[in-house]
Amino acid sequence: MTARVAVVGAGWAGLSAAVRLTAAGLQPTVFEMAPRGGGRARSLGDGDEGLDNGQHILIGAYSRTLALMREVGADPGTLLERRPLALTRPDGSGLALPPGPPALAFVRAVLAARGWTWRDKASLLRTAAGWAAGGFRCPPGATVATLCRGLAPRVRTELIDPLCVAALNTPAHEASGEVMLRVLRDALFGGAGAADLLLPRHPLSGLLPDPAAAWLRARGAELRCARRVSSLSAAAGGWVIDGETFDAVVLAASATEAARLTAALAPAWSAEARSLRYEPIVTVYLDAPGGTLPCVMTTLRDGPDAPAQFAFDHGRLGGRSGRSAWVVSGARPWIDRGLEACAAAVLEQARPMLPAATVCRTVADKRATFRCTPGLRRPPAAIAPRLWAAGDYVAGPYPATLEGAVRAGENAAAGVLHELDAPDGRHPAA
């Protein structure tokens, strides 16, 4: 008899786990509390002019995410626009990598950077060489700011600070240097194209959630959307979800939901998941008929009255002409001031580039990512026999990214399959 496996949550981690289980010959049952899958990276609705619940980007180093997209029939070459990494400001200053091997391209980009003195450039090359010589490792307690003490102030302000908040959604003086170095290592030494930006040309649901759902249903998996799981309890040789018995479970819900469901059966794991702290992200969509931004992705100078760090020109990505997305990472101070105040400040920040802009919609994710701080303890993937967690928050080398979620889903599915095949059903943590 084929084992019954449940996946709780149809975000990118849950869908990744479900695809791996299905590819192994199972027909998992997927529970999703929202009307559609995708989690924090999905479209808001078919009739909402293609708006997403936040601006997301990928990079070329996201190998597992890109492979998963191809597996379910979503062609990255069509759905994503690939561009060399560029962190350039409206005046053209900043860093733009040319094509080629990432490490060499980085050196060439630094030497060609506009607006930086030779002393600025030398400080960056010297510091980056030190990171590479150390194997992109640092003491667990080091912050990104600690790693950058030798950098010229302008390089720190114009490159590291926006890069850190984009990758970790945590300010540099609080962000984990260990995790940041892992991201830089994979991008700069992950092979040709690893550092490339992959910008969505279509609504997020079309990148993975909808194709994955169709792929799963075509192979016998069951997706139960708009169904929040109320209870999870142990049974002989398996688990019971709302009165229904399964041989194994992948818990791919948010950390908050996972902590709720495991509070009684795995209190230590639940407490660790509940202890995570979060940083919000606000995305302000602007409409400016006939208006365009200097770059497809423009790096901005944020400040007390300028919330956004990046702006994305959707018109230049095949979307609605004149529409742009302005991203406010580490947005807690602006959440406290109110979304209307945040949107108004973004609108003023945009005026020099888009004089006729108006606010189309403001989207806030108050628990967008966990605070990626030094020495952070993240809950392990293995919770109990045949019960695994999947999500960008579980223990792993990556920050809260789509790639982290996909890899966590694959890891959880592999753990379940191993236990189902093990003669004694022994749990790896036993």
Task: Summarize the structure in words.
- The protein is globular, with a radius of gyration of 22 Å.
- The protein has a 6-stranded mixed sheet with strand order 8-2-1-12-19-18. Strands 14-15-16-13-17 form a 5-stranded antiparallel sheet, with helices on one face. Strands 3-7-4 form a 3-stranded antiparallel sheet.
- Helix 1 runs parallel beside helix 9 (209-218).
- A hairpin with a 2-residue loop joins strand 9 and strand 10.
- By secondary structure, it is of the alpha+beta class.
- It has helices at residues 12-23, 63-71, 76-79, 102-112, 118-133, 144-147, 153-168, 177-188, 209-218, 255-262, 267-274, 332-337, 339-350, 402-421; strands spanning 5-8, 29-31, 58-59, 80-83, 86-88, 94-96, 197-200, 222-224, 232-235, 238-241, 244-246, 248-251, 278-287, 297-299, 310-313, 323-328, 358-370, 382-384, 387-389.
- It is built from 14 helices and 19 strands.
Unreliable spans are 425-430
User: Could you give the count of β-strands?
Assistant: 19
Our Rg estimate from Cα atoms comes to 22 Å
Euclidean distance between termini CA atoms: 26 Å
Helix content: 25-40%
